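User: Show me a protein chain along with its predicted structure.
Assistant: Here is one chain, sequence first, then structure tokens.
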Amino acid sequence: MPQQDLILAIDNGTQSLKAMAFDLDGRMAAKSQVTFQPYVSPQPGWAEQSPERFWNALCEACQNLWKSGKVSREALIGVALTTQRATVVNVDREGRPLRPAIIWLDQRKARGLPPLGGAWGWIFRLAGLSGTIDYIRSEAEANWLALHDAEMWRRTHKYLLLSGYLTYRLTGDFVDSVGCQVGYIPFDYKRLRWARKWDWHWRCLPVVETMLPRLIAPADPLGQISARAARETGLPAGLPVIAAAADKACEVIGSGALASHIGCLSYGTTATVNMTHARYVEPIRILPAYPAAVPGHYNVEVEVYRGYWMVEWFKQQFGHLEQIEAQRQGLTAEALFERLLEQVPPGAMGLMLQPYWTPGLRFPGPEAKGAVIGFGDVHTRAHLYRAMLEGLAYALREGKERLERRTDTRITTLRVSGGGSQSDQALQLTADIFGLPAARPHLYETAGLGAAIDAAVGLGCYPDFTSAVQAMTHIERLFEPDPVHQDRYDRLYREVYRQMYKRLKPLYERIRDITGYPGEAQAWPGD
């Protein structure tokens, strides 16, 4: 049993919770994972989960670590937590949940809100942003809760993100990391603090500042494991709990993308392109840059909401043969999908896919839909699968170019993390489409590793983030662009993909007018 200093990283995702022990070289000494149903839907479009389910999964994952015998609790020097973004929990004065958590995938809307009045209403009308602000207000879970469950809202002592709720369960204090503040909350993303009293966010929400937790910068202490948490998790009482950040932010530093010229691609449920920046820059007007896992820094991000979720969609709709064969061989269906990619040349013989299975707020707009063009009699489901991954890469390249324009910083290399990064074919087509080297980190769990890096710096194991990232992140394999494939992809991207949205937008609008679907945008500040 290894006895060197270890850091425990807890990663609460959408479908599972993982407890991972890392050494100070970034190697994973042990891992325990507890899966759960992502959410329940009491009504169409709702997505809820019991907060106790998350806490019980945390306790079970930690207890399983000790039972495995791979790590000793006495070797732990600290704990860090990272979670899914924008999931909210209402609790009473004793920290007991008052209702199920609303998950970031939830689609309910707060209808019938009066127009925003006062000076801010006038300013937004003058700037032509009233529609955007009204949309944001309708999306805010707090507004829906206050409208539809006023008694519960009255009893709410604290309105927390999932990270704040789990931190309370670990430490007994209502505190949370600045790096976790992503959602429809009165947070000043530029100043990395709760919004000032005159800020427009307070006019849009029924939240008051006393309902919010105290904020702590990443790498600073949140508290210590309480006696109660120690009994339930098996963690040593008094163990330091160090502030980390939300899962996407932790993925960025966990993949080694600390410098602003390194683009971080997350091939997860939501696909994102991210860069760490010392300056606050809105990637799209009025949509904020998010807090980074590094204090005082920002993640400038563009996301494709239905990212590598599309692999699961493809598996359910077209992957029955792979599912059956994978079960027979004891493999995953995704591993067999590699063969589909190998069967089809780059460019999918002209099949082009626009991956807007769910639209956005400003780009793409609320009318956007997915599209596939270029079908011919030669095309098979293998071509569709390659076109799907290529379409996601095209969309992220478009996002990367947007970030470069907004930040005046050129991205020269890529780090790719998330489930999709395990595919060699996906990494190679990414390098070819971006025309940049694409590196796969030495391990898949970059969110957990990023949280461990925050803890390592906070505990004084490294003097700064530069040295911690250098010591704890490593490249497993580098994929270089193929010049021939790069040239083909570049032409397809510039001459076809970049033209698709603006040419199809009028048709998307007509589809919405005729069918009523999609009625409104489904853009979320989550993963």
